[in-house]
Specification:
The protein is built from 21 helices and 19 strands. The protein is an alpha/beta fold. Helix 4 runs parallel beside helix 5 and helix 11 crosses helix 20. The protein binds zinc ion (ZN). The site of zinc ion (ZN) has 8 residues, from loops.
């Protein structure tokens, strides 16, 4: 984009935009929404709460480790860049508040030698991380870079490892890290600190990747898919959590930071109303097949409905960081009362179009990898995990098998078994098979009055054992899938009552009951340390199938009688 004092030309829609109007619009073209690049100082101004910005002044490490020259000495090029930008290097660091949360921010500037990663840039990023570590503050990075600065050779390359280590130290300290990807972010910056944030946010249209399109075209001569390496393309493929326009950035970033940074306050849950039924005799008997039909009612609240109704400040997070964002599992961070929580659940939708869009609540491996990523985030941030179960099962398809469906389910079971934070599961609809259990290895497992939990769909069981899928009602009764039976079996710890007419008849009331039930369990779990949580969780699942029974009389043909 070209820019003058008075007027700027939008490279996307060719509109000539009045400079002051562009500035008021945070550098976003008022005609087409394209983002003009911002300088590092403009980014700091955009993100900071009023009057909170304080630059971190620091001496700059010596440059030119190779005495490099490509005809023009590197030191001369550095001087030119300094004169052109008024900056010492391609990054500026500051302390500030964003949405009332104090943070350290490192913002890059593409004008300074293409935002390239030099020894000094790596050093300033690392010092920003070390400042955040020392002061126990979140770190926010704003990236714009073509990659490692060639003029510093392998010393530049080493900055990738150095900054990745700095990010890891923040992980070990449980401090929140957020990376904001702006256009363009490539090469060594993309492949180090830009992708190591707990939360990765991208600007609309921002291009991001390791190898740029020109390199790919020149070396491999592959044709690039439409929208390749744009923020939206990367969101769909699970590499970024959200794509957020500039106008809403400070608000949404502030929300994520405040949920992440103010946590671990067990007293926050407070006393909760006891709504959970723990005695099977207090529950009316319900025919198991009737329960199956009610659990599948498309009018029942879905996970998205519950998230909207029970949480404050909810921010949905996307992607498994591996290659997908499964629509059959949704999750994110929010606040339950005053306590920050991570919530993850199966999502079905209501209308035929929604059901299709969410794959009927049947997750593919990317869904379980997303769930696992959010659970690890909860463990790092020290906040409880709530899971809501409603699935006919994990997606049974060729692609899901090729991407390791069994592996990801197994790994999620193992992860939950050792997660050092409180875990509460509510089966809200259909809890079917390993696809349900994969996110249900919790300290407390609750089920709603008209929900079911089963090893296989009654139709599937009937087809295999009865050789007749029409025998599904008989199979449902034999499998004891209804809430009352499950409570008697000890598979669930309690039953959440539903409004008269069922959850489908009154979403707000159903959500209020679920909310009260979760709060009561979290309040009870809040006093336990991680070792006790894990030990009790393991004991909870260890006991199934472990009860002693009289030894069966067996006859062994050919053996001793
Ligand atoms: Zn435009």
């Amino acid at each position: 984009m070209t820019e003058t004092q008075e007027w700027a030309l939008c490279r996307k829609c060719r509109a000539v935009v009045y400079g002051k109007r562009l500035a008021r619009n945070h550098g976003v073209c008022p005609q087409c929404g394209a983002c003009f690049p911002l300088t590092a100082h403009q980014w700091l101004d955009l993100l900071a709460d009023r009057d909170t910005l304080r630059l971190i002044e620091t001496d700059l490490p010596a440059a030119d480790p190779l005495s490099f020259s490509d005809g023009v000495p590197y030191t001369e090029r550095l001087d030119q860049a300094r004169q052109a930008t008024g900056m010492a290097e391609a990054v500026v660091c500051a302390r500030m508040s964003i949405g009332d949360t104090p943070v350290v921010v490192a913002a890059m500037d593409f004008r300074f030698m293409g935002g390239s990663l030099s020894g000094a840039v790596g050093e300033l990023i690392t010092r920003a991380a070390e400042t955040a570590l020392a002061e126990r503050l979140p770190l926010v990075t704003v990236t714009a870079s073509g990659g490692v600065r060639m003029q510093e050779g392998v010393v530049g390359l080493m900055q990738m490892a150095k900054t990745a280590q700095a990010m890891q130290q923040l992980d070990e300290a449980g401090l929140v890290t957020v990376c904001l990807i702006t256009d363009p972010t490539y090469g060594g910056v993309a492949a180090s600190y830009a992708m190591l944030g707990d939360i990765v946010i991208a600007e609309p249209g921002a291009r991001f990747g390791f190898a740029g399109p020109r390199v790919i075209a020149q070396t491999i001569r592959q044709e690039l898919p439409a929208g390749f390496q744009t923020a939206e393309f990367l969101l769909e493929r699970g590499f970024v959590d959200l794509v957020c326009p500039r106008a809403r950035l400070r608000e949404r970033l502030g929300r994520v930071l405040s949920v992440g940074a103010r946590r671990n306050c067990p007293g926050n849950v407070g006393p909760a109303e006891q709504v959970v039924i723990r005695d099977p005799d207090r529950l009316a008997e319900q025919d198991a097949w009737q329960a199956v039909r009610r659990a599948r009612h498309v009018g029942r609240p879905t996970t998205s409905d519950y998230l909207r109704l029970i949480l404050d400040d909810f921010e949905e997070l996307h992607g498994d960081r591996v290659g997908g964002d499964c629509p059959a599992i949704v999750g994110g961070v929010g606040r339950l009362g005053r306590e920050s929580v991570v919530v993850i659940g199966h999502e079905k939708g209501h209308t035929p179009a929604e059901l299709a869009a969410h794959n009927f609540g049947m997750p593919n491996p990317a869904g379980y990898r997303k769930a696992a990523r959010l659970m690890r985030l909860a463990a790092k941030w020290g906040m409880p995990v709530v899971t809501l179960v409603d699935t006919p099962g994990a997606y049974p398809g060729v692609d899901a098998e090729l991407q390791g469906q069994a592996t990801v389910i197994a790994e999620t079971l193992r992860l939950m078994g050792g997660l050092p934070v409180p875990l509460v599961t509510v089966v809200t609809g259909e809890g079917c098979s390993g696809g349900a259990l994969a996110i249900a290895v919790a300290d407390r497992v609750l089920i709603m009055e008209n929900a079911i939990y089963t090893v296989i769909s009654p139709e599937g069981c009937a087809a295999i054992l009865w050789k007749d899928s029409a025998a599904a009602p008989a199979a449902a009764r034999a499998l004891r899938v209804d809430a009352r039976s499950l409570l008697a079996l000890g598979v669930v710890d309690g039953v959440v009552p539903e409004p008269p007419g069922g959850a489908e008849s009154d979403h707000p009331e159903a959500a209020a009951l679920v909310r009260a039930a979760i709060r009561a369990e979290l309040s009870d779990l809040a006093t336990r340390d991680p070792a006790r949580l894990v030990a009790e969780r393991r004991a909870r699942f260890r006991r199934f199938g472990g009860q002693s029974a009289p030894a069966p009389a067996l006859s062994h043909p050919g053996g001793p009688q």
